[in-house]
Amino acid sequence: MKSRSIITPLNAPYIFLAPFVISFLVFLVYPILDMIRVSFLTSEGISSYTFVGLENYRRLLSDMHLKTAVLNSIGFTIGIIVVNVSLALFLAVLLNNKLTPLRNIFRSAIYIPALTSIVVAGIFFRLFFAESPETPLNRLLVFFGFEPKRWLFDSHLTGIVMLVITSTWRWLGLNILYFLSALQTISPELYDAAKVDGASSAQRFRHITLPGVQPILIFLVTTLTYGGLRMFGESYVLWQGRGAPPGDIGLTIVLYIYRSAFAYFDRGYASAMSCIMFIFLMIINFIFIKSFDIGGGEKK
To answer: CB–CB of 271/39 below 8 Å?
Structure first.
């Protein structure tokens, strides 16, 4: 007697989709719904909650720590977009040039920082930018006759600069590879024809290179925007281990959410911030889709 298989042409699609649907519901939909529910509560201890309505959302309007975190996150996001995109494109063009010496070695090594743990990278930069006069950066300042600086605690601007440097060091190589992959798709004949027509290097870059890497450019601006606004690891490693820095230097939105939820056990307020951030990111996503016509296909 032949055994009947539970997988039939009728139910096969549902069976194969079930693991994804279950994972999607458990690990994405349920946490979002629970976050919305908890945002209307306030914690009394670790596991006791009281319904407070919109009180957590009203607190957002007068929270100066949140205002500082938002400004820091926006400044960091703008910084990594400008630095990563411009520097990655410049180095990619340089490494794509056959006349660049040792370009194959550099093309192999640029991805190594992306493989480094954020904890290891953060500790290194925290020591590198420490306030001690014996750190490499301060010793360089003293050598040129300047006073040593407390880089991580000097001002919000220096804090953002430190975050941008740390994040750029870690992800610049990956962004260069993205641009290199786009440059490989541009036909060399276009550059040869432009040279014959008398186009300068700047004109070839503007009219051939930039249009050729435009899809990658849009992709990087989009991902760097999301990554900048939800940045957590660099800020946590550089400052959190040493206590809250003065004036909330280096405080980002996600770090403030984390601190509210796990340091102050104010899970309701952290959930309210998360809800607003979720809505804000959805708005940014909608703007990117409409502005760059992502997924719109070719226009007739």
So the answer is: yes
